[in-house]
Amino acid sequence: MMVSTAVNPEINKSARVTTTKIVLMVEYDGTRYHGFQWQAGLPTIQKELETALKKLTGDSIRVIASSRTDAGVHAKGQVVSFRTKSTLPPSKFTSGLNYYLPADIAVRAAHRADDFFRVRGGALSREYNYYILNSPTRSPLQSRFAHLLSELLDIDAMNQASQDLIGQHDFISFASGIGGSLKNTVRQVYQAGVKRDGELIIFHIEANSFLPHQVRNIVGCLIRIGLGRMSQDEFHSIIESGKPGLAGPTAPSHGLCLMRVNYPHSFEGE
Amino acid sequence: MMVSTAVNPEINKSARVTTTKIVLMVEYDGTRYHGFQWQAGLPTIQKELETALKKLTGDSIRVIASSRTDAGVHAKGQVVSFRTKSTLPPSKFTSGLNYYLPADIAVRAAHRADDFFRVRGGALSREYNYYILNSPTRSPLQSRFAHLLSELLDIDAMNQASQDLIGQHDFISFASGIGGSLKNTVRQVYQAGVKRDGELIIFHIEANSFLPHQVRNIVGCLIRIGLGRMSQDEFHSIIESGKPGLAGPTAPSHGLCLMRVNYPHSFEGE
Predict the structure, then answer these.
(1) Tell me: the pLDDT tens digits for A61-103?
(2) Is the omega angle on the peptide bond into residue B249 within 30 degrees of 0, that is, cis?
(3) pLDDT of A136-186, one tens digit each?
(4) B126-145: pLDDT as tens digits
(5) Which pLDDT score is estimated for A4?
(6) Residue A244: its pLDDT value, please?
(7) Residue B180's pLDDT band (boundaries 50, 70, 90)?
């Protein structure tokens, strides 16, 4: 086990262990996992990352994610940060962690971050996609990342309704599983839309942050709209209601993917 | 076990069992399988289809595929035909077989075909895609269906070289594992090209039919061209050489997908 004893003479002349903050762009197939966050005895993304970091650096390191994805939810662009005494350059965190991580989790890039960088509080927005396979039959090449729905959906109606999400709203009616623990349920939606890509229907949404189950409860409503079982007016009323539990049903987790997290400045280069 | 004793009075007045020809559009994730064709004691697509047909109809039915995909190769649009005494309408073959088939194989559509329809000999052309993930790191969301290559590929050079494939050529230099069993190694390539789609590089080729390993040996050459290790002239010489075994190396099977098989008339509707 190597412990860095490097000292930054510019800041402090007394001997102390310096740490650096590393930011990882992480992609995963969430199928096998009980979500991002550590849970005793269960496979989670956090546990796998921390196990790989331990193997790579020899240290027990706690990672923080921009978004706590639920069980079964995938990520193309999860952002994770941690502090380490290791002096490895960021590129070695990419290759080293990918060596130790299981095949369904990968570090796509690693960067050194400023000390004041906050991976959760510092994020300007999160972007999610929800994939619906709108087909009379299942598709083995797409089933892992898309929710199969055989009844024909009215994409225009879904897209039109989704525009009502844009702006600042109290989204408490779309939260579930929170048990009154959240103080502030107002969120700002920057973008929302529904489009077709072949057999897939893709719902895209960007907001400053999201309440638990918010995207999947929105999708549950949009599916009802697409099937003609809910009107845009009813959807609008749910958004404005401020009443917990009105939205849904919660769409299945495997259709959801965290696409990207945006920060005030990008992480191009190292 | 039900045996149909229906007789077509228009054709033959003597009592006999009539059969109908059914054509299936089949999609599969080939990861778990030793290719399409039946092999004793090994999981194959053919075995799964015939097992499901036995469960659905009660009869032992032999299926024929348009293309014998190799171990690990995927299909979005494999075409399979068989004869059956069953009087089930085609739509019931879709839903019934999907009920019995494993999750990584699905019937996307079923149609009744004329008696003279030949799924192999009657096909005008086959279209394949080969997917290369050109990235310094692996991608859990794409790794199942794309071959990872971290060194940067010159897509323009690959695309330009691929144009030399178009037309009629003796492709024996691209065949492998045939042991001199093929009498005719001349094939007609109708389309070929290499393009980028995000991190993916997609090689698409359409030909009347393909020799064993032909597409993967072409891709092996194109990768060498993309890395600057083979010139377009050398590639051209291999095409014109008529010498077995010159092309390659054989690219990994999991990047290959049978996209579509074309017939003189389409199978729209039932």
Answers:
(1) 999 999 999 999 999 999 999 999 999 999 999 999 999 999 9
(2) yes
(3) 999 999 999 999 999 999 999 999 999 999 999 999 999 987 666 778 999
(4) 999 999 999 999 999 999 99
(5) 43
(6) 87
(7) low
Distance CA B60, CA B51 (A): 8
Q: Which region among A50-59, B59-68, B119-128, B238-247 has the lowest average model confidence (pLDDT)?
A: B238-247
For A265, the token pair is 């400045």
Chain A's closest residue to B93, CA to CA, is A137
Q: How far apart are CA B5 and CA B260, in angstroms?
A: 36
Q: Looking at the domain assignment, is residue B269 inside a domain?
A: no
Interface A–B counts its CB contacts (< 8 A) at: 61
Beta strands B20-28 and B105-113 are antiparallel
Residue A109: its chain B contacts at CB < 8 A? 137
Which residues constitute the domain of residue A179? 125-261
Q: Residue A198's domain is classified under what CATH number?
A: 3.30.70.660
Count: domains in chain B: 2
The shortest CB-CB distance from B27 to any of A98, A103, A139 is to A139
Distance of alpha carbon A194 from alpha carbon A186, whole angstroms: 23
Query: What is each CA distance from B102 to A155, B30, B52, B60, B142, in whole angstroms?
Result: 30, 12, 9, 19, 21
pTM, two decimals, is 0.90
The pair of three-digit structure tokens given for residue A150, joined into one six-digit string: 């055989």
- The verdict on whether A70 is a catalytic residue reads yes
Q: Is the pLDDT of residue A121 over 70?
A: yes
Q: Which two tokens stand for residue A76?
A: 């193309």
Structure token digits, residue B46: 């053919």
Residues B135, B250 within the same domain = yes
* pLDDT score for A188: 98
Q: Which residues in chain B have their CB less than 8 angstroms from residue A141's CB? A: 27-29, 74, 76, 145, 257
Residues 6+ apart with CB under 8 A from B98: A137, A138, B106, B107
In a domain, A266, yes or no: no
B152 plus B257 within the same structural domain:
yes
- For chain B, the residues whose C-beta falls within 8 A of a C-beta of chain A are 27-29, 74, 76, 94-95, 98, 103-109, 135-141, 143-145, 257
A146: which DSSP letter? S
Interatomic CA distance for residues B131 and B194, integer angstroms: 10
Statement to judge: residues A133 and A236 lie in one domain: yes
